[in-house]
Structures are given as structure tokens and as C-alpha cells.
Amino acid sequence: MSDPVPLTTDHPVRVASATPPAPGRSRRLSDRWLAVAFISPALLLLLAMSVFPLLWALYLSFTDYSATRGGPAHFIWFGNYTAILASAQVHLRALTTLIYVVGAVSLQIVLGFTIAYLISRRTHGRGLLTTLFLVPMMLSPVVVGLFWRFMLDAQFGVINSMFGSLGLGQVEWLTRQRTALFSLIVVDTWQWTPFIMLIALAGLTAVPKYLYEAAAIDRASEWFRFRTITLPLVWPLLLIAVLFRAIEAFRLFDLVYILTSGGPGVSTETLSFHVYKVAFLGFNTGTASAYGILMVLVVIVLTQLYLRYLNKLKED
Amino acid sequence: MAVSVDEAASTGPVRDHTPPARRLGGRGRSVLEVALLTVLAVVMLFPVLWMIETSIKENRDVYAIPAKFFDFKVTLDHFKDVFAASGGGRSTLSVSFLNSVVVAGVSTVLATVLGVPAAWAYSRFSVKAKKDQLFFILSTRFMPPVVVVIPIFLMYRQAGLIDTKLGLILIYAAFNVPFTIWMMKGFVDEVPAEYEDAAMLDGYTRLQAFWRFTLPLLLPGIAATAVFALIFSWNEFVFAIFLTSSDNVRTAPPAIAGLIGGTTVDWGLVAAASVVFALPVLVFAYLVRKHLIAGVTLGAVRR
């Protein structure tokens, strides 16, 4: 390959505008080859590690295959699906998951937005404050789960210790039906409030100041300004964050596994955790696959919503 | 056409600081706001501080009732236990940390090598159904890991990849490629395509133009993207616990989680291991703080 002296690389833009390139047929062809060569390895990996497994799960979901029993799989068509959709156990898990997702995400919005709003009104130390608030989000769910498990321990946990010194009774955070799900929501909220905060803060700092100034001239009340300026401008971005969190919360597994293992009883068993139990403790691979495919369908719907809003936000 | 989200409200420049003259509700309100913010900051940071404190407490003080906040004896024994086995030699935890370094490192390199060229191609060329392809790529990242792991487990069992580092590396790379493509596409979009056109007028091929002119400009973006991929792989737990079992393959998250398996839990050791595990993540996250929004939304939202 000849390597001419690049005379004009210091100001490439000027050259380009002086003599616009006229791409010939051969160049476009080579561009297409280049695109294929550059994109296909990544796509192949995704096909092998994401799409193919899902298709396999789809196939298994129509059979009574069991990973331990071995032997040939028998087609039972929609047997697994009807069994799952009719199962009272699954309905209970769906309810638990719904409570968890709605509870955690709404707490995160309220707290995250509040913190972001308070930070955005500060003039000094904003960078430091933001950095400090972001710490929980970067930790592994394993670390978070283990640590909260220690803090929430009924006997020597620090939370109960504080309750004790305040004269309050001891609470069995993780071992009582009612409080266990609540504790799970609290821990998830602790970890992911920074996420909402970060995005809300980005939205808040992008609101043009002159809008507030104009409103101030009109003597608009603070609440009016918040409702008519701040919220409409931040909401689209916040919605993206909310949907993102909802998807993550829906597929949550690790925190449940570490914190409560689904217990006590089945009070904190989310759908993800139940799929795991059916697949890896019950070894009903076929049923678990159908269960998983149904979860994937929910995720796809949520993801479509997410992507649609993302697209809309981009176009505005 | 950029698929990534630019400024939500691109009218007007972003102001980084509020003019100090702006006093909306007077001093009382300001004090109240600062107080509220302080309380929230304490609540958010307390678990982290408690974890650090527990990791340097003597066992007696770890289990003290009521909890000791200040007057405890400082010891580094727990940290020693993280790295050294009781009978001498390396502990299983330290082996798992090494495994984590290898798995996270190699999978990140793989995801970067596959993702960056793809991101460039998506940014520069007109690809058929580009938007659909990009959306499809991102949506693979949203699949519930517990569901994906069932067929992956069967696949790996057939291929002999169960309980191997290679198996983990492959799945982590696949898990980071969508993120890398989305994140990097944003960075590539910021580099004018005219640079390459100009280079090509000078006689370079398209590939050379990419390699010699665009890629150097992308390096900071690649570094930031790789750091996020590294953090994701480092923190990952679900695939690790289902696809590996032996001590010399297992990464740190399942190894640390394994510490609470027995009847008695050495919380000092758990805390020390958690601190050692979390510290590099926090350092790395601090390095890429500018790109945090793009990073945590998988490259979908950019500022």
C-alpha cells in the first residue's frame, strides 16, 4: 500500500469542503464490506450467547425436558405455559414482584428526585456531594446484600442496636413475613436512589435559567415554577430512568439470593428467584424455560416502552 | 443520525453554577435544605462507613451489643485473612480475586475489540435497518440473567465450558458488547466524519483513515467504556454462581457470598473482603465520573 505524505491532515475539514469527495461505486462496495466485517463479529457473539440460548429455551419450553433426568424430551406443546399461567404459586410470586418493583421504584423516584433537587439548589460542593451520593450504586449487589444482611441482623445488627438505644423494640427485619419484603425494598432503594438522582440532576441542570428568571418576573409561585417549568423539562429524562429501573428491578435476582433467599417462607420470592428454584432446585428445565420465556416477554414489552421513549427524547 | 440522546433541553448553554445572588426562600429555608441534604447523605453513606469500620474491628467489637461506633480496637487481622490462608499460603479468597481480575480483564478486552469497530461502522455507514439493529443489540442486555443462564448452562455442559474461566469470559463479553457498542457509538458520533473523508482524499483507505485518524481521537472514550465494562464484569454475580463451582475458577462475588454459607458467619472477614472487592470499583468509577450517566444507562442517555 502506498503511503503518501499527508500534506493536509492538520486541517482535514477544510480540504474536504474545498473538494467534496465523490465516492465511486467501488468505494461504496468496499465500505459495505468494511461495515459487514466490523459489525458481524459482535453480532455473531450476541447471536451465539444471547439469541441462540433464548431460542433453545423456547424449544425446551414446549417439552418436559429435565436437565438431571436426561433422556429424550417429549413435546407437550403449551402444557408448561398453561400450567404456569394457572399456577397460584406463580400468581403469588407475580404479586410479590409487582409490590417490590412498584415499591422500590417509587421510593427511588421520590428520594432520588428530592436529593437531586436539593443538590441542584446548592452553589458550593455540588461535585463532592454528587460523588458521595453515587457510592452505593457502584457497589456489587453481593456486597450490598451481605452488608445489609449484617446490619439488619436481629441480634447484633446495628439497625436494631440503634432502635434499642432510641427505646424502640427489636425488629426481625429479614425473618418476618411482613418486614422481609419491606427490607428488600429498602435495600434496593438504598442502592439505586443514586441512579435516579444522577439522571434527575442531569435534567435539572439542563433547565435553562432564563425560564426561571422569566417566571420570577411574572411573580410565579415556587410551586407553580416547579410544576410548569422544572417538572415538564425533567420528566422525559426521568421517565427513561424509571423504566430502566423497572426493568432492572423486575429481573432482580442477586439481592434476593443474598439477603433472604426468598424467605421467610416464600414472602420475598420474586419471579426471577422462583424461576431459579424451578430450574436449579426442582430441575424442571422445561417448565423453567417456559417460565423464563414468559418473563422475557414482559421484559421485551418494558424494553420496547423504554426504547420508544428514548427515541422520542432523542428526537425532541 | 445519532441514536444516542443528546441534551434533553439543548436550548441555551448548560450552567454549572447558580449565581449566588439567587435567594428564593431566604436563609431559613436554605438552612433547612442543607440539614435535609446532610441527613440524607449520612443515611446513604452510613452502610459504607459501617462496612469499613467492621472490617478493622476486633471480633469482640464486631458482635458487641449495643454496637460500638467509636471506641473499638483497630486491627488489620481481617484483611490479613482475606489474602493469607490460616495454614499459610494463599487463601481461597485471594485466588478468587485473581480469577476476577483475569475474567473481568479478558472479557473487557474482548468486548472492546468487538464493540469498538462495530460502533464505528454503525456510526459511519448506512447499514440496513440500523436503528432496529441497535435496539435489538441493546435489548439483549435486558434479558433476565436467571432465564438466560438455563440454556447457557445446558450449552456449556455440552461444550465442556462449565466451571471454566473461558465460559465466564465469553458470557461476560457477550453481556458487555451491547453496552460497548452503544456507549462507543456516542463517542464516534462526536468525531466528525469529515476527518476520515479528508484523509481518504489524501490517499488513505477507509480502514487506514479509521486506524490513523479516528481511533486516536476515540482513545479517551474507549478507556471510559472499558472501565465500565470492567466494573460490570467485576460486579457480576448470577452467571458466576451458576456456571462455576470450583475454588480455582470461581470469581470473587460468589466466593464472598460463600462466606455466609456456614452456621457461624465471620462478619469481620466478610466486611474486609467486601472492602477489598469494592475499593477498585470506587476508584475506577471516580476516574470515569464524567461519563457516569452514559455508563449506568448502558450508553443510552448522554449528556
From TrEMBL, chain A:
GO cellular component: plasma membrane
Keyword vocabulary terms for this entry: Membrane, Transmembrane, Transmembrane helix, Transport
Record-annotated membrane-spanning stretches: 33-62, 74-92, 98-119, 131-151, 192-212, 224-247, 288-307
Entry annotated with the keyword Zinc: no
UniProt membrane topology term: Multi-pass membrane protein
First-listed, main subcellular location of the protein, grouped into a coarse class: membrane
InterPro entries: MalF_N, MetI-like, MetI-like_sf, Sugar_ABC_transporter
Cross-referenced Pfam families: BPD_transp_1
Cellular compartments annotated: Cell membrane; Membrane
GO BP, one annotated term: transmembrane transport
CDD domains listed in its UniProt record: TM_PBP2
Family: Belongs to the binding-protein-dependent transport system permease family.
Name of this protein: ABC transporter permease subunit
TrEMBL record, chain B:
GO BP of this protein: transmembrane transport
Any one Pfam family match given in the protein's UniProt record, by short name: BPD_transp_1
Main subcellular location: membrane
Family matches, as InterPro entries: BP-dep_ABC_trans_perm (IPR050901), MetI-like (IPR000515), MetI-like_sf (IPR035906)
Keyword terms: Cell membrane, Membrane, Transmembrane, Transmembrane helix, Transport
Membrane-topology annotation of the record: Multi-pass membrane protein
Segments crossing the lipid bilayer: 31-52, 97-122, 134-156, 168-188, 209-234, 267-288
GO CC annotation, single: plasma membrane
PROSITE patterns: ABC_TM1
Compartments, as annotated in UniProt: Cell membrane
Family per record: Belongs to the binding-protein-dependent transport system permease family.
Protein's name in the database: ABC transporter permease subunit
Source species: Nonomuraea phyllanthi
Top-level taxonomy: Bacteria, Bacillati, Actinomycetota, Actinomycetes, Streptosporangiales
